[in-house]
Specification:
Low-confidence stretches: none
Number of domains: 2
Largest sheet: 9 strands, mixed
Oligomer: single chain
Strand content: 35-45%
Mean pLDDT: 96
Radius of gyration: 24 Å
Distance between the termini: 58 Å
Helix content: 10-25%
């Protein structure tokens, strides 16, 4: 099919300064067993292509599901017409862009093909663990799920660029909810919002630890029911990786997206407290904060070799030693801002234009062992598994809640507490970073549900992080 698509595109490409085609075919299967009942499988296939034209200083896009030469010719004509309308009226002269004409391939690492198990066998696997959640009458809801997606993509340019990328995404999930005397608590295994999401096949289920997780998750939900509320006060906070995913995402990832800094998202997703003059000098966090854009990390959820504008992707430091170095901006935003960025122009589907998005955004591990970080806390709370989030439209003031907490007193882990929450300001919070966990504390997490753009795009994002210790944080419980 790709060979015929290439021929059709070469025939359809108009005589313009630049023309590219991005083809995407995505097949997904979502299976859920809820309260021991298999739900109807959700199956989807989506296929189409986006044509990009740059001509006479204008930029135009047009998408089509008609992949014949005639269909692509019509889409290319629409894109050329839109480019003509934009020429001379846009915020940037797109004719000055040097768009890449790349060649290369990428494929997700897959040890166990998802199709090696029949759909019935996958349902049996989920049902077996779901049944283990029924440990007590107070467990009122429970479910296990498995979401697998295969994505084939091709990026072609009229000048001869050819990139093919094949992705396999696997997202297991499991949760249990307990209720008693007006109190409800939910515990999830691997994180809410499908936090345990990776590229790969059925081996991801093994890494997730599905076997045996049902009983442990249900028992943890019951433990939360009986736990005291998280205290209120200024305390040290030890955030585990399945909460760091949200902290990184909201207070580093979104503020550093260059199109947001340039004002493109102001009417929808907001702006950023970060301004272009901060890069190279601004103290974003303590000396311990090292943040990388790393699309080459094997198995992480948003790994790739080329972004959706054809730029080759490479690992780059965004923040090093606490100092802000570069934004999350693709080729077009880099040209507009005059700043070096990264290859992160990404689209969620064939019928959406690429915009600046997080991909794999990671905190690099430090030198602190978990037990040493606990020992360094005289009075604090360990918090795990994101539950809720609220952040202003400049991605500065935030308030986050977690599922699970444990008090730390005198350098020792103490009782479990429920409803742990904390608040802060991005511009100062990261400067309170006092210890960064070593490689043994690192977990790869992420989310399939990062929303941005008009029309809206929901995209996959990966985050790898160690556990991190913050000093003097405003902490509060469920009544705070």
């Amino acid at each position: 099919m790709l060979e015929s698509l290439k021929r059709a595109f070469r025939e359809a490409a108009p005589a313009v300064d630049f023309c590219a085609l991005r083809f995407v075919e995505e097949t997904s299967e979502q299976l859920v067993v809820r309260q021991d009942v298999p739900e109807p499988p959700r199956l989807a296939v989506d296929r189409g292509a986006m044509v990009t034209v740059i001509h006479a200083g204008g930029l135009g896009y047009s998408a089509t599901s008609d992949l014949t030469a005639a269909g692509l010719r019509e889409a290319a004509g629409r894109a050329k017409d839109l480019a003509a309308l934009v020429a001379g009226r846009a915020v940037h002269d797109y004719g000055r862009l040097e768009m890449p004409s790349p060649k290369g391939r990428y494929a997700s690492p897959v040890a166990k093909d998802p199709d090696a198990l029949t759909r019935a066998a996958k349902f049996d696997l989920l049902a077996a663990e779901s049944a283990q959640c029924r440990v007590d009458p107070r467990i009122v809801d429970w479910e296990a799920g498995l979401w697998t997606t295969r994505t084939r993509s091709a990026y072609l340019t009229a000048a001869g660029g050819e990139v093919e990328q094949d992705f396999t995404f696997t997202v297991p999930s499991l949760s249990a909810t307990a209720h008693d005397k007006g109190e409800t608590q939910t515990r999830t295994h691997g994180g809410r919002g499908n936090g345990f999401c990776r590229q790969g096949g059925l081996e991801v289920i093994d890494a997730f630890g599905l076997s045996g997780a049902g009983r442990a998750t249900a028992e943890a939900a019951l433990e939360l029911l009986a736990a005291p509320d998280c205290p209120t006060g200024t305390l040290d906070v030890l955030l585990m990786p399945d909460q760091m995913v949200l902290q990184i995402h909201e207070s580093i990832g979104h503020p550093l997206e260059l199109d947001r800094i340039l004002g493109d998202e102001r009417n929808f997703a907001g702006t950023s407290f970060v301004t272009p003059d901060m890069f190279g000098t601004y103290r974003y966090g303590s000396d311990l904060l090292d943040v990388t854009f790393d699309p080459a990390r094997a198995g992480e959820y948003a790994s790739y070799a080329f972004d959706d504008d054809g730029s080759p992707a490479a690992r780059e430091y965004l923040i090093r030693g606490g100092v802000l170095l570069r934004p999350l901006g693709g080729a077009i935003s880099q040209a507009r801002a005059g700043l070096a960025g990264v290859a992160n122009a990404r689209a969620c589907a064939w019928n959406r234009a690429p915009i600046d998005r997080m991909a794999n955004l990671n905190i690099e591990p430090g030198a602190s062992r978990f037990e040493d970080m606990v020992a360094a806390i005289e009075d604090g709370v360990l918090m795990a598994t994101n539950l809720s989030w609220s952040i202003d439209d400049s991605r500065n003031k935030f308030q986050f809640g977690c599922e699970w907490g444990r008090r730390i007193r005198g350098g020792k882990l103490a009782e479990v507490v429920k409803n742990p929450n904390y608040r802060g300001i991005s511009a100062t919070f990261w400067r309170s970073l006092a210890a960064v966990g070593d490689a043994a504390t690192v977990q790869m997490t992420g989310t399939p549900f990062c929303g941005k753009g008009e029309p809206n795009q929901v995209i996959r994002v990966g985050h790898a992080s160690p556990a991190c210790l913050f000093r003097g944080v405003q902490v509060f419980g469920g009544a705070g």
